[in-house]
Amino acid sequence: MSLATPQDAIERPELRRLLEYWQAKRQALGRLPARADIDPLEMRFALGHLILADVEPGDPIRFRHRLIGTRIVEHAGYDATGLYVDDIPDKELAQRLLQSYRDVVATREPAYDRVGGFVGGRALNLEVLRLPLSSNGTKVDMVLSGAIFMRA
Hints:
This protein is an alpha+beta fold and 152 residues long. It has helices spanning 13-29, 70-76, 91-107, and strands spanning 50-56, 62-68, 111-119, 122-133, 142-149. The longest helix has 17 residues, at 13-29.
């Protein structure tokens, strides 16, 4: 379940900076930023912790991981690049992630969450910020996430 995104609820400074970066882009553009508006060099502070997911409309809506940051791959123990979120081995975790992505698409607003679960027999405990991106400024067609692993 996604939580509201009050900046003071976010523990990790990288995620706070990512939210500030996205908010500044949104304000400057007067619309939701697109992938093309995001400059990886301006987000060096979070590069290994980023996930890009394409939104594939349909019934049900699906989310395909376009990019998984190296730090996430290291902690998770596998690379989910190219996989759909619903292909994550831990089905309970997959459902929670799907709901978070769906919330971002429906509200067109950031979502913050703490996620725990098991993938490949490994315990995951992470703080996640999801940010909507839109190539036309209104319809969410990509989700940019920052995910930082926390100590158990």
